[in-house]
Known about the structure:
alpha/beta; about 30% helix; binds zinc ion
Amino acid sequence: xxxxxxxELNRAARLPVETAGVxxxxxxxxxxxxxxxxxxxxxxxxxxxxxxxxxxxxIRSSGYVHALGEAANMQAxxxxxxxxxxxxxxxxxxxxxHDVDSELIDVFRLRTGSPYYVSMVIAPTSDTLSFTGxxxxxxxxxxxxxxxxxVGDRLQALSSFERHQRSEHAMFDRNIRAFGPAMQATLDExxxxxxxxxxxxxxxxxQLARLGVRQFTLVDxxxxxxxxxxxxxxxxxxxxxxxxxxxxxxxxxxINPSVQVxxxxxxxxxxxxxxxxxxxxxxxxxxxxxxxxxxxxRLATYMMxxxxxxxxxxxxxxxxRVAGIDGRVTTLVPGQACLVCRGRINLRRAASExxxxxxxxxRAEEGYAPALGGVEPAVVSFTTAVAAAxxxxxxxxxxxxxxxxxxSEVLLRMHEREISTxxxxxxxxxxxxxxxxxxxxxxxxxFLEQTWSQ
Length: 454
Ligand SMILES: [Zn+2]
Ligand SMILES: [Zn+2]
């Protein structure tokens, strides 16, 4: 959910009496179960409460029927939620709550047209919310709502009140001293997708594993070449010819045997690969291709999936001497401009990258498509510096130590020893703009409303 919706829940949970509402959410089925993308929150009207006290409430159907109609219009599921007031209250459904669920389950499904019914109880803690919840599908499969992800200026992950968290590993003692056990637990549960396993991507992966991230999805179509070994963390000359995802995956498991890696030897421009990233909690864009960045931009909007996109540009003069060292880390979250709005993607090159090699050659000769560049210069120190800036961006948003509002882009001009930051608003009319209605839209046909070749 967005930080605006989370702030509203937080405010309601701190009222002295129970408060109920309906959250409209898109449902995305992923390998690890359904994922709900919260889009709109509708509170029950004051006059629909038949009783509203600190320890209970009852509501007339007029309190939620309009929300169910709205859910049907938006093709969303409706999440029935209510608060248990008082700091330290248990966000656990009472017997009465269970009775209400069994009354509402059919009404909600029937009126929304969604096979899902979701129910949630929230309670305030001293500094945030605690919650429990359940998702029922029409075949009566039930999932516990195990996590709330808040996506925006800050990134937060809250685990369910009933979820047992792993005890911390001695390995992370120094990290815990820096940012506490709760943050370590968050990193422990985070699934991170890394798109591109070259110099930047392998360095991102290396740092995340040492920070305590244990679930990775690695995406890269290429094999390790001798000239990659100068930058690719975990690689050796003996591995030349092996897929990069295997080299990086094996290295992460060497660092910490409890790391689990999904290795996708593929491009993010392949639809099934892009789809399989929907169960990640954050994506790092470490690819140089423009077409891949277009997919990342859409994933960030449609799936409310935060993307931290990295770029490194080395320019050399005619004598192969470095003339400019430019790094960029752009964070894509709802409310901030995407890579297209920022002009960070070369659209002609993106189109050209999606052609078959033969077709591209023919069109380039005819002058219709830009010839794709040859081998770009790359140096481990510069790719590592940009990867570190990207990891610092994640930590900063999870921990929240930086300025607010946060910059959504960091530019490193290393040759001038200069760092600058900026924020950019979405362009009116573009899909990343709230008014386009695409934020959290979820699964569409075609996927991400773009064309796919495979
Ligand atoms: Zn209750
Ligand atoms: Zn945009």
